[in-house]
Design brief:
Elements: E1 2-5, E2 17-21, E3 24-29, E4 34-35, E5 39-43, E6 50-53, E7 72-81, E8 84-94, E9 101-109, E10 120-123, E11 130-133, E12 139-146, E13 155-164, E14 169-178, E15 187-194, E16 197-204, E17 212-218, E18 226-227, E19 234-235, E20 245-254, E21 260-267, E22 280-288, E23 294-296, E24 306-309, E25 323-324, E26 335-338, E27 347-348, E28 356-359, E29 371-376, E30 381-389, E31 397-406, E32 409-418, E33 421-431, E34 434-436, E35 443-444, E36 451-458, E37 461-467, E38 474-481, E39 499-506, E40 513-525
Antiparallel strand pairs: 1-24, 2-3, 3-5, 4-26, 5-6, 7-8, 8-9, 9-10, 11-12, 12-13, 13-14, 15-16, 16-17, 17-18, 17-19, 20-21, 21-22, 22-23, 25-40, 26-29, 27-28, 28-40, 29-39, 30-36, 30-40, 31-32, 31-39, 32-33, 33-34, 33-35, 36-37, 37-38
Length: 526
Amino acid sequence: MGVIQNPVLRGFNPDPSIMRVGDDYYIATSTFEWFPGVCIHHSRDLRHWRLASRPLDRPGLLDMRGNPNSGGVWAPCLSWSEGLFHLVYTDMKRWAGQVKDCHNYLTTAPSVEGPWSDPVHLNSSGFDASLFHDPGGRKWLLNMLWDFRSSQSGFGGILLQEYCPEKRRLLGEPSMIFRGTELGLVEGPHLYTREGFYYLVTAEGGTFATHAVSVARSTALAGPYEVMPGNPLLTSAHDPDLALQSAGHGSLVETQSGEWVMAYLCRRPRVKGRSVLGRETCLQSVEWDQDGWPRLKHGGRSPVLTCDVPDLPGREWEQDPPLDDFQGPVLRACYHSLRVPLDDSLMSLTERPGFLRLKGRESILSNFRQALVARRIAAFKVAAATCVEFEPSSFQQLAGLAAFYSTESFYYLYISRAAHASKCLGIMRCERGGLSFPVEKEYPVEGWNRVFLGFDLDRERLSFRYSQDGKTWNPIGWEMDSSILSDEHAIPCGFTGAFVALCCQDLSGRGLHADFDFLSYVEIDA
């Protein structure tokens, strides 16, 4: 057996949908308001993973302008049938409160690298949709039903409806096949077949402390479904001291040799009980008991940091170096933008070769059109730095480096203009939508053509620094509380994770650009 260290996908990588095609394993994870939508990760041995594709890479597949924080792409499902990858995803337009606006789509491709087809709108009755390919050849859509009339939770159960690929639409009426268990909040459905049974794997208990993976089965596709004795299959709700918390939202894959593995999400709340890294993806081996129910191979129902997985031929992947000097014509795959693609009106790597040019647009608070490039923070101790060339002519023009969770929670070390200085540094703080600007005094940097900016994240502490030459650094501001960059601190809650971001704003509408020479991202303690 091989040994893995959980999480296998560190940092913001939630809602894993795992599958296999031949010797290749794939996991699709949610991206919420970050563009391109959905991350598809690839492995040959279940231990080493690489980011292989981000399929929702054009507005025709995903238009998130105006989507709320933690809206956008929820819980994708990746599957393979008849020579095509099938990707089902939710675009959540409004999620906070009793009424939700969510739309489920399907796109297909012959390879995870694409090209991905124009989307088929499936329904808008709930979220966490998945596609089941019945061995008999028919296809079925599952999703949870959102019942806005409910004064309790709104989680109405799991719906099933046939999908016709030739007609590219759903057929007939949906049927309710599972109401969930006493854990409540049933969502995240996936169907599997084994030895005459249909197995329904769902997420229950909500996505925080009481999250869980539940299992039910039936001899008929439409049910009734019997809940597994001793359910749930996996949870950390019973032990707040476990290193992996919020364990749930599982999906299963069978290996080439007939073994089974489950992918699921977790949190590692090491900062004041908050999870700055967001929800991450873990793996655990599963075996089937004598009564035909799946059980964790190591016993019990708790997630573990280290576990055995099938011993498959190893395959390591080349990793991005910690320094990105923006020498290529396209951005590395690790970068995302907020809600919209970074077209020529927002970004360029060719107008000044060797620099990332961001063209100032809306404020860092905007949910519509920002010039912002970001990558996940995937370790508890990180050092980030950049060098900016930016000449503001107005206080409305800003550019710099941010530790970013959402447009309602971030820290931003920016270059701008002030009444006392033609060029200065300041720190902006936003916590739960409350903006402090600047946090303290602004620091003049007049005559500096290049300004080096950096921050150091050390678990619960975040501190900024600046330099004129990139060698001698000066602290700026005081130590910040990094835990505001977490799901648990968001209002009413959040579902993403912390990012390091480069950004530029021009609230005058003139589109002044900033040139970034590099981005250094160094993980010190994972």
